[in-house]
Amino acid sequence: MTKNTICLWYNHDAEEAANFYAKTFPDSSVDAVHRAPSDYPGGKEGQVLTVEFTVFGIPCLGLNGGDVFRHSEAFSFQIAIDSQEETDRYWNAIVGNGGAESACGWCKDKWGLSWQITPRVLTDAMAQGGDVAKRAFAAMMEMQKIDVAKIEAAVRG
Question: Can you identify the CATH homologous superfamily of domain 76-156?
């Protein structure tokens, strides 16, 4: 058992979300599904209560707690990717499965969880600082899904 697990609140569909993440992202899996031993404020005995799953090697617990709380951008998964192909694959999987586009490489899945699909070329440019970071940042600010070629052009000046 890990010492730290990310617990994510879902209305009633943690298992569906975990299955989506497992089929979409590498090093991801659904590890266990636990059913409620009795009725609880968000559900009934026998319904899926928690789902243990892994996303990109990060252990998570999905809790079906009912519609009391919502996800917000205050928490997001940031995925470091290496190519436009990877960017497109993850972005399109999330948005195309009932999610929504946002700005600067952010999108939300259909359960309201935020994802940052972030090409390494962008984070590398930001780490360089100075004019390179300014140009890359300015280019990023005009995007929804990150365009790797445009970030590379901005880095070159």
Answer: 2,3-Dihydroxybiphenyl 1,2-Dioxygenase, domain 1 (3.10.180.10)
Least Cα distance to 114 among 86, 87, 92, 95 occurs for: 95
Predicted model pTM:
0.93
pLDDT in tens, 30-76: 999 999 999 988 789 999 999 999 999 999 999 999 999 999 999 99
Can you tell me the distance from the alpha carbon of 154 to that of 112, in angstroms, rounded to the nearest whole number?
A: 32
Tokens of 140: 């990023």
Q: What CATH class has 6-64? A: alpha beta
